[in-house]
From TrEMBL:
Superkingdom of the organism of origin: Bacteria
Protein name: Dihydrofolate reductase
Listed GO MF terms: 5-amino-6-(5-phosphoribosylamino)uracil reductase activity
Domain Bacterial bifunctional deaminase-reductase C-terminal: from-to ranges: 4-183
InterPro entries hit by this protein: DHFR-like_dom_sf, RibDG_C, Riboflavin_Biosynth_HTPR
Biological process per Gene Ontology, one example term: riboflavin biosynthetic process
Length: 189
């Protein structure tokens, strides 16, 4: 069975972006970038892969899930951020007509979609954001990989934006980098 991994950058105060889905405070340089290029290359946008002369092998992930706001955050650059992956965008107000060809927009229950995807053949499923979708899928997340950045944002979308519902995870690895980023990996307890 395939696994769902929530792999995301986060601030020390649990924000996955600043107000208005502004990601500019998160560092894009530092020694943690080598790990991303080596271990999480599938999560790089298509334009970044092309600029770096790299190709995604889809060994870690072949599918990416995101909420509409996460998808729309990249509209200044593209409407097809991960052309090397199957892209599924969840929205209650947007339709397929609002997205690029090859990007699936659905208002279907995210839990039902994830359970169906987990039964398919393939590599992993990447939940890339946002916090509302993550909260809806919290019981389906098999792995949580956080790139914890040494900054406090104060405002912005939360890592999990849902009602109070404690869930215990088991730390499987923590890797600090000279950049100040600490990558923590957790599994369902």
């Amino acid at each position: 069975m395939r696994a769902l991994t929530y792999y995301v950058a986060v601030s020390l105060d649990g924000r996955i972006a600043g107000p208005d889905d502004d990601y500019s405070a998160f560092p894009v340089e530092g020694d943690h970038i080598a790990m991303i290029l080596r271990d999480y290359r599938d999560t790089l946008p298509g334009a970044a892969l092309a600029a770096l002369g790299l190709a995604a092998d889809r060994a870690r992930f072949d599918t990416v899930l995101m909420g509409w706001n996460t998808y729309a955050a990249g509209f200044a650059h593209t409407r097809d951020p991960y052309p090397h992956l199957r892209q599924v965008v969840f929205s209650r107000s947007r339709t397929q007509a609002d997205a690029a060809p090859g990007v699936t927009v659905t208002d279907e229950d995210p839990v039902r979609v994830v359970r169906r995807l987990k039964e398919e053949d393939g590599s992993g499923i990447w939940l890339c954001g946002g916090g509302v979708l993550a909260a809806a899928l919290a019981d389906e997340i098999d792995h949580l990989v956080l790139k914890v950045n040494p900054l406090v944002l104060g405002e912005g979308p939360s890592l999990f934006a849902g009602p109070y519902a404690p869930r215990h995870l088991r730390l499987t690895r923590a890797t600090p980098y000279g950049s100040g980023v600490v990558v923590t990996e957790h599994a369902r307890a």
